[in-house]
Amino acid sequence: MSGNESDGDGGVSDDHGVAVVAAVEAIAERIEAERDYLTELDSAIGDADHGGNMARGWAAATEAARDLDDPDPETVCKTVGKTLMAEVGGASGPLFGGSLVFASAELDDGLTAESAVAFAETYLTKVEERGDARVGDQTIVDALTPTVHTFKKSIETDDLPPLEALAKAVDAAERGVAFTVPIRARKGRASYLGWRSVGHQDPGATSVLYILEELLATAADALDAEIPDVDATSPTIPDEATEDDSATTEDD
């Protein structure tokens, strides 16, 4: 999406609201298409209900978003979050939906690169708080943390265009999902398996990746642009040596 804010008379903000609704629709379609796979992943370490719960929740969220009059990004996200809380069972409802409700407030002044970063950070914080989870627990946090950190750095430090920053964030999420496979689950029902949870991909983290992939595709469509071919690695390592340090090295 662009870095422009609403002019107060519609236009940019309205376009962003329409794009967010389109993203919700795309996410619902993707989750439905991946329902069986998500169920398969969850059957190995959980209750085998993640796919069905997520598909039902996002389908309901799509209907709720479509019913909004003149949607803006904050309202769409808040509506989707509340719907997911009501429709998605288990821990996923509060994690995916409740966190979205809180994070939506960051879009009060419109969707910009800066507000998107704030949104992402708030979402991650709320997920961590609600799930009492950290990186390495084999949860959605393992996908969200590298996503948010990569997106923030890409925008605030590397000064990348939002679409390129989002593409790098999606790559980071993919790496985070892969990270869940060789580690032991320490939260949720999967933790009951102990070391038997090792070798299984976390279904929640996988859903995060699908959601982010659809956000990226929708953003590219909205901007009429190609998805950048990038990865999450940093192209350069900052040189933090001072001029005095350099001079000392040369004298030696």
UniProtKB/TrEMBL annotation:
<dbReference type="InterPro" id="IPR036117">
    <property type="entry name" value="DhaL_dom_sf"/>
</dbReference>
<dbReference type="GO" id="GO:0004371">
    <property type="term" value="F:glycerone kinase activity"/>
</dbReference>
<protein>
    <submittedName>
        <fullName>Dihydroxyacetone kinase, L subunit</fullName>
    </submittedName>
</protein>
<feature type="region of interest" description="Disordered">
    <location>
        <begin position="227"/>
        <end position="252"/>
    </location>
</feature>
<dbReference type="Pfam" id="PF02734">
    <property type="entry name" value="Dak2"/>
</dbReference>
<keyword id="KW-0418">Kinase</keyword>
<dbReference type="GO" id="GO:0005829">
    <property type="term" value="C:cytosol"/>
</dbReference>
<dbReference type="GO" id="GO:0019563">
    <property type="term" value="P:glycerol catabolic process"/>
</dbReference>
<dbReference type="InterPro" id="IPR012737">
    <property type="entry name" value="DhaK_L_YcgS"/>
</dbReference>
<feature type="compositionally biased region" description="Acidic residues">
    <location>
        <begin position="240"/>
        <end position="252"/>
    </location>
</feature>
<keyword id="KW-0808">Transferase</keyword>
<feature type="domain" description="DhaL">
    <location>
        <begin position="18"/>
        <end position="217"/>
    </location>
</feature>
<dbReference type="InterPro" id="IPR004007">
    <property type="entry name" value="DhaL_dom"/>
</dbReference>
<dbReference type="InterPro" id="IPR050861">
    <property type="entry name" value="Dihydroxyacetone_Kinase"/>
</dbReference>
